[in-house]
Write a structure and sequence with these properties.
Elements: H1 2-17, E1 33-42, E2 48-62, E3 65-74, E4 80-89, E5 94-100, E6 105-112, E7 117-122, E8 126-136, E9 142-152, E10 158-167
Antiparallel strand pairs: 1-2, 1-10, 2-3, 3-4, 4-5, 5-6, 6-7, 7-8, 8-9, 9-10
Length: 173
């Protein structure tokens, strides 16, 4: 009987270790500001399919709500896409809603890992997962990194990555 009680105790403790962290009230604050960099979409061989020059501007309106504006330029074609985003959370679950100038509207659900935000979406035609984090670079600058993958219309898995440097007000273009 003591072994059984110990086993249940260990299972309960291990289950507790896997519980997701609660979302800190100001979880979006590290992303506040203007970010400039490059975003790449790659095929399964690592070949770059798309390269975008990106500018993203985020402003928290409250501890649980942040809005963003994006500008992406396809390096190969020169096509410009703009977007607005709304990031929100209720202390447990997170949501990111993006509306692009090309008519695309996407909603991701998220979770806070304690170090990064992991976003995902799953529809009959799309599966995506990506992680976003803000960190200090060796050069002393602040960076916003994104890494993930997507599967679209039953095709091969694509990977994507971006790295954006936080801009001082005088650097914003």
């Amino acid at each position: 009987m003591a072994r059984l009680a110990l086993a249940f105790s260990l299972v309960g403790a291990l289950a507790g270790c896997r519980s997701e962290p609660t979302v800190p009230p100001n979880v979006f604050a590290p992303w506040d500001g203007t970010w400039v960099g490059r975003f790449y979409v790659k095929d399964k061989t690592g070949r770059t399919l798309t390269e975008l020059r990106v500018q993203q501007i985020y402003r928290s309106e409250s501890p649980r709500l942040q809005r963003g504006q994006f500008r992406e330029v396809d390096v190969a074609t020169g096509v410009v896409t703009t977007a607005t985003a709304t990031n929100s959370h209720d202390g447990r679950s997170m949501r990111c809603e993006v509306t692009k100038s090309n008519g695309e509207h996407v909603v991701h659900t998220g979770r806070w890992t304690g170090e990064a935000i992991e976003w995902s979406r799953s529809t009959p035609k799309v599966r995506e997962f990506f992680s976003e984090r803000v960190s200090q670079g060796e050069d002393g600058a602040t960076y916003y990194d994104i890494r993930g993958w997507g599967e679209y219309d039953g095709g091969d898995r694509l990977t994507f990555e971006g790295r954006y440097r936080q801009q001082a007000p005088a650097e914003v273009q």
